[in-house]
Amino acid sequence: MDPQVPLGESVPPNTRYAVSVSLPTWEDNVDYEKGISRVVDRMVGGYPRFFIARSIQKLVTMVKDRFALPSESAMLFPSLKCAERCVAFIYDQAPKQHSADAEYALPRPGQVRIVTHVVEPINKKAAALDATTDALQTPVTIYCVFFPADLFPLAKQYWQHTGDGISARLADHCLRIARVNEELEQTTAPLSPFGSCGMSRRKHGSGYHRAASAAVSPSPSSSGRPTPTADAFVLPASGELRSAAEDDDVLSPEAGIEADTYVEERFGRNLSLKYTANMKAALRRRIAGALSEEEQKQGAQVERGVAGLSADDVYIATTGMGAVFQTHQALLRIGRGKSVCFGFPYTDTLKILQKFGPGAYFLGHGEGSDYDELEQILERHSQSDSEDDGILAIFTECPSNPLLKTADLSRLRELADRYGAALVVDETIGSFPNVDVLSWADVVVSSLTKVFSGDSNVMGGSIVLNPNRAHYARLRQTMDAEFEDLLWCEDAVFLERNSRDFMSRVPRINANALAVAGMLAASPKVARVNYPKFTTAPNYELIKRSTADAGYGGLLSVEFAGGEEASRAFYDSLACCKGPSLGTNFTLASPYTILAHFTELDWAARYGVSPYLVRISIGLEPCDELLAMFQKALDTIPA
């Protein structure tokens, strides 16, 4: 891959659904966080929970043109439950985040509402011929949350934290149907029974088929949450899109993609969409290590080390943060206590624990006296007379992002058992070919967007329940009753395809990263390399698998003796792809703290996360080329 990707272009290049975007210089990252137009205006995409994809933005425009009141904005969700949670979040957080200089007024009852929109091809045969893959011919329902435009930052928080929003592939599916409907109207007019804009003129009582607005009142229900009322009517997608979307690439999913990529996606290794259920079942088996005989022959087997584990204990979420969020939601249904975030986590994990439910304790160092403080917290809450005042769960990452620390899971497990808390471990960075955390945890979550996929073109997450832990029965019952399978079928296609060689890629990435980490650690220009082999190493060795291929993963972060000047010089000269995300098959770097904590740099620094830290995700390139590239970047740092 050519690492010289221009500013704002997708990473990987020419990839419509890329989950990263090129920010090739340190200043580009700073200006992106400041919202400077020279950067923001050139971005064709970004990490999907932070940057709402262009196709989703176009679909929002279409929906707003149809249903919005003046000065309203909208967010789109794949289920009514997701939309209801967004509404509840806005009403809950608006007064909590409001201040005298706030740029929004508190929403009134009914001012935040849900519209149910059913996208259905008028001519299913034409829709099938138009699609670049097998088209679904059944209606697709999306749920639109409308709110005053000045509340957009609050709604965007919900979108970012939970990963509940619709995927770009689903948005493109809706846009394709809209185009087919409009073209049919144009070719059949004026004899068509259909009116303008693709709206079916089938009667519904005395009016036309339309979408219903479900106003959501902030008055609490018996559950303490706002109670929406919804009534859905069928509405074929509108041809208004043609006037609203001037960019042809939005209406043509294959536009802007190189021909060989298009052919590969249409005629290559992807299975038909009619096998979506089979693909999701294969993903669950792959994650559980309970694979078929044929899959084992392909070398994709790994023993989870947990007796009784089955694919039924695995749940596939739409994003990695969705897996964290759904786990937290399930735990809140079986208890109401606070949680503990142990160690410095990826930013949205802490935000989920703080903003949803009764809140959380944050032990951000994740070592030393934090264990004693954790025990004191657990003991104090155990003495409470209230049944809802115990500690609900302990959340930790093994290793953590970006400091690559590993918690002592044996000690956390002992404390969790003693005080009745659940232990939730995020294994994204370590990945299950390298580490066994499920043996210690009640629940293991992971972002499948990262090394499990590797191709950086699809989002996904997983939740695995340990059948041998005390909370299993209630968690399994709750998950089976409440969990929604919302992974869009086309996303499932790519996630299944990309992960087939997951087990063979991980050892190669391990070897490359170990070599790079060793070289950087030996340089006098480097102050510190954060890597599991060097950072809290005994704790990592406790969970590291004993197989020959197990290693320390592909992620590391580095701090330089020369501070910001050295970090800038190293980053700007590093000849690899540069942008958000990690776990890619290619090497990817970012000034992590700038991107993740730009508005709270001093706070992050208190927990050892330097504002000048450079995070590097090592890929599959030849090792000698990687070492030469990093040495060249080191050479640009003043002595």
Automatic annotation (TrEMBL):
Signal peptide: none annotated. Its cofactor is pyridoxal 5'-phosphate. Residues 208-232 are annotated as: Disordered. This is Cystathionine gamma-synthase. It comes from the Eukaryota. SUPFAM superfamilies: PLP-dependent transferases. Keywords: Pyridoxal phosphate, Transferase. It comes from Coemansia asiatica. PANTHER family: CYSTATHIONINE GAMMA-SYNTHASE-RELATED, PTHR42699. The keyword Membrane does not apply. Its EC number is 2.5.1.48. One of its GO terms (biological process) is transsulfuration. GO terms for molecular function: cystathionine gamma-synthase activity; pyridoxal phosphate binding. Residues 211-223 have a biased composition (Low complexity).
